[in-house]
Amino acid sequence: MYGWIWRLLPGGLAARMFTAAVLAGLAVAVLWYVVFPWLEPRIPLDQSILNR
């Protein structure tokens, strides 16, 4: 899968590395600011199993 994505990126090595870093940063930002805040109230991460 990563090879397929790498072949789809335009440009030379430097441009591909920059584009890949930007895409990875965007994926992290979407997870951090959208997915995790939406998921946090649905999963009891702060509760201990012993306190039930």
Description of the structure:
With 52 residues, the chain is mostly helical. The chain has one domain (2-41). The protein contains two helices and no strands. It has helices at 2-8, 13-39.
Give the % helix: 55-70%
End-to-end distance: 43 Å
- Beta-strand level of the residues, as a percent range? under 5%
* Unreliable stretches covering 5 or more consecutive residues: none
What does the main sheet amount to? none
| Number of strand elements | 0
Round the Cα radius of gyration to an integer and report it.
18 Å
Note the overall shape.
elongated
- Label the structural class: mainly alpha
Q: Give, in order, the helices and strands.
A: HH
Q: Please count the helical segments.
A: 2
- Nearest-integer average pLDDT: 87
Domain count: the total is 1
Briefly, what is this?
With 52 residues, the protein is an all-alpha fold. It has two helices and no strands.
Brief descriptors of the model:
transmembrane, 2 helices, 52 residues, transmembrane helix, mainly alpha, membrane
Which secondary structure elements does this structure contain, and how are they paired or packed?
Layout: H1 2-8, H2 13-39
Keywords: Membrane, Transmembrane, Transmembrane helix
Transmembrane segments: 20-39
